[in-house]
UniProtKB/TrEMBL annotation, chain A:
<feature type="compositionally biased region" description="Polar residues">
    <location>
        <begin position="58"/>
        <end position="72"/>
    </location>
</feature>
<dbReference type="InterPro" id="IPR012295">
    <property type="entry name" value="TBP_dom_sf"/>
</dbReference>
<dbReference type="InterPro" id="IPR033710">
    <property type="entry name" value="TBP_eukaryotic"/>
</dbReference>
<keyword id="KW-0238">DNA-binding</keyword>
<dbReference type="GO" id="GO:0003677">
    <property type="term" value="F:DNA binding"/>
</dbReference>
<protein>
    <submittedName>
        <fullName>TATA-box binding protein like 2</fullName>
    </submittedName>
</protein>
<dbReference type="GO" id="GO:0006352">
    <property type="term" value="P:DNA-templated transcription initiation"/>
</dbReference>
<comment type="similarity">
    <text>Belongs to the TBP family.</text>
</comment>
<dbReference type="InterPro" id="IPR030491">
    <property type="entry name" value="TBP_CS"/>
</dbReference>
TrEMBL record, chain B:
<keyword id="KW-0158">Chromosome</keyword>
<keyword id="KW-0539">Nucleus</keyword>
<dbReference type="Pfam" id="PF00382">
    <property type="entry name" value="TFIIB"/>
</dbReference>
<protein>
    <recommendedName>
        <fullName>Transcription initiation factor IIB</fullName>
        <ecNumber>2.3.1.48</ecNumber>
    </recommendedName>
</protein>
<keyword id="KW-0862">Zinc</keyword>
<dbReference type="InterPro" id="IPR013763">
    <property type="entry name" value="Cyclin-like_dom"/>
</dbReference>
<dbReference type="InterPro" id="IPR023486">
    <property type="entry name" value="TFIIB_CS"/>
</dbReference>
<dbReference type="Pfam" id="PF08271">
    <property type="entry name" value="Zn_Ribbon_TF"/>
</dbReference>
<dbReference type="GO" id="GO:0097550">
    <property type="term" value="C:transcription preinitiation complex"/>
</dbReference>
Length: 285, 285
């Protein structure tokens, strides 16, 4: 290993403290990164990019694999205060790191079901012209003041307003949403408008998953009263409003969970990791 | 009022602040100078210490054209005109379903709290009033279904449900979860079922929930199915349509819940139940 020679520099005790913290954050991101990789194959490219950037941090891993016992790392992994904002890359050093047992992380990855994004085409549009010339476009000015256009490839729907702003819904991933928005912008461009692609922003992400065991919603609402709302007359699921990543979860008796309100994929994953131990404690029978 | 023996103060403020009774001794019923003012409601309106000019007695009371005397009372308590209106509406709604005074008082208090907080100012007062009525019934331990409140209010179930959640948030209170037993006595007496059948239905519903035969079903639907089973096993049979009409549940919903509890029917009935139709002859839908 080419990095072995650097070990002696990083052994001093003063650095151990920050090494510990860094490894712990890395450890958490390692789990998250695994989620990312599983969830979206299109991200592999970005993963390898990150690998090339942070070579020196691997040494922290090496120096600590001996000094840090397994429990320290595992006990802090599920804690929410480790922010996921700074991603430290991991290379092939990863297998040497203590592997987190499955009981700590849920092993279940929420699947993204819907992404809502907005983009500004930066030019005034003539909706009637768009509705007349474009395929798969509907426009009822009396009902709604926008053209509703659909494309087949990433199966998505766009609401195109006369101001030039557009809302794109139905995509299953961030990249697909961006791609679909670009396709819609292209359609508008081909109709003769000077369309641009400004301020693409993902506004909402919806994910769902299955914890595979039935849940006692009545007990959950009793203990988490300030976050939960369970009214069987109004809706069969429990509505859990999580504070730390501000995510709303719909939890059903069957064990299916829907997470919504996220701006980032990581928020969905974090929310699910937060709720999973709670749901496990309210498993039925 | 003080007890003469121990000196315990039994009642202070023994001045009757109820509304004035009418005296029939005089011929002129309008003028009765021994009585003053309307019933005091200091808890709800702000004090209500306003006075108004009564009708003139003599000939010189601004009698133009012989008709109008001094201008009728101006708007008193204009600051709480809306609140008084809402109280009137609440009393009307409660009267339609014969709610006791304690629930109406609680509703008025809730409405006053919400109104003063102003966080739900934009919502229709009737919607807030209906939601307060719903919460008051729940808090008093005699919940009414949303549909029952809808029946006496002009507001839709959706809007009442929304206001309900907003009020719980605004007042930072919570309510207990509804159970099947809360509705048994009302539904059964509306259907004219004898006490035995009502007790049997309560037992069936409670057992069904304990044995988790109906996961995710609304307690109202389970209660309706239990009433159906109990009534069908007794001499007083009721059809699904009749029960659905009283409970506000669709008859297909009763059918679905009934299908879930039917297999365990022998276990659900109370031990001392007298079967008019034996368990194996219960209708199978």
């Amino acid at each position: 290993m080419p990095y072995d020679s650097y070990l002696h520099i990083f052994l001093p005790d003063e650095l151990n403290q920050e090494n510990t913290e860094q490894t712990l954050t890395e450890g958490k991101q390692g789990v998250e990164r695994n989620h990312e990789i599983q969830g979206d194959p299109s991200r592999l490219q970005s993963v390898s990019e990150k690998n090339s950037n942070g070579i020196c941090t691997d040494n922290f891993n090496l120096s600590n694999s001996g000094s840090n016992p397994l429990p320290t790392e595992n006990s802090t992994l599920p804690s929410p205060e480790n922010s996921s904002s700074s991603f430290f890359p991991l290379t092939s050093m990863t297998p040497l790191m203590p592997v987190t047992p499955v009981s700590e992380s849920s092993g279940i990855v929420p699947q993204l079901q819907n992404i809502v994004s907005t983009v500004n085409l930066a030019c005034k549009l003539d909706l009637k012209k768009i509705a007349l010339h474009a395929k798969n476009a509907e426009y009822n000015p009396k009902r709604f003041a926008a053209v509703i256009m659909r494309i087949r490839e990433p199966r998505t729907t766009a609401l195109i307003f006369s101001s030039g702003k557009m809302v794109c819904t139905g995509a299953k991933s961030e990249e697909l949403s961006r791609l679909a928005a670009r396709k819609f912008a292209r359609v508008v461009q081909k109709l003769g408008f000077p369309a641009r692609f400004l301020d693409f922003k993902i506004q909402n992400m919806v994910g769902s998953c299955d914890v595979r065991f039935p849940i006692r919603l009545e007990s959950l609402v009793l203990t988490h009263q300030q976050f939960s709302s369970y009214e069987p007359e109004l809706f069969p699921g429990l509505i859990y409003r999580m504070v730390k990543p501000r995510i709303v979860l719909l939890i059903f008796v069957s064990g299916k969970v829907v997470l919504t309100g996220a701006k980032e994929r990581s928020e969905i994953y974090e929310a699910f990791e937060n709720i999973y131990p709670i749901l496990k404690s309210f498993k039925k029978a | 009022m003080i007890c003469p023996e121990c000196g315990l103060v039994v009642g202070d403020r023994v001045i009757d602040v109820g509304s004035e009774w009418r005296t029939f001794s005089n011929d002129k019923a309008t003028k009765d100078p021994s009585r003053v003012g309307d019933s005091q409601n200091p808890l709800l309106s702000d004090g209500d210490l306003t006075t108004m000019i009564g009708k003139g007695t003599g000939a010189a009371s601004f009698d133009e054209f012989g008709n109008s005397k001094y201008q009728n009372r101006r708007t008193m308590s204009s600051s709480d005109r809306a609140m008084m209106n809402a109280f009137k509406e609440i009393t009307t709604m409660a009267d339609r379903i014969n709610l006791p005074r304690n629930i109406v008082d609680r509703t008025n208090n809730l409405f006053k709290q919400v109104y003063e907080q102003k966080s739900l100012k934009g919502r229709a007062n009737d919607a807030i009033a209906s939601a307060c009525l719903y919460i008051a019934c729940r808090q008093e331990g005699v919940p009414r279904t949303f549909k029952e409140i809808c029946a006496v209010s002009r507001i839709s179930k959706k809007e009442i449900g929304r206001c309900f959640k907003l009020i719980l948030k605004a007042l930072e209170t919570s309510v207990d979860l509804i159970t099947t037993g809360d509705f048994m006595s009302r539904f059964c007496s509306n259907l004219g079922l004898p006490k035995q059948v009502q007790m049997a239905a309560t037992h069936i519903a409670r057992k069904a929930v304990e044995l988790d035969l109906v996961p995710g079903r609304s307690p109202i639907s389970v209660a309706a199915a239990a009433i159906y089973m109990a009534s069908q096993a007794s001499a007083e049979k009721r059809t699904q349509k009749e029960i659905g009409d009283i409970a506000g549940v669709a008859d297909v919903t009763i059918r679905q819940s009934y299908r879930l509890i039917y297999p365990r029917a022998p276990d659900l009935f109370p031990a001392d139940f007298k079967f008019d139709t034996p368990v194996d002859k219960l209708p199978q839908l």
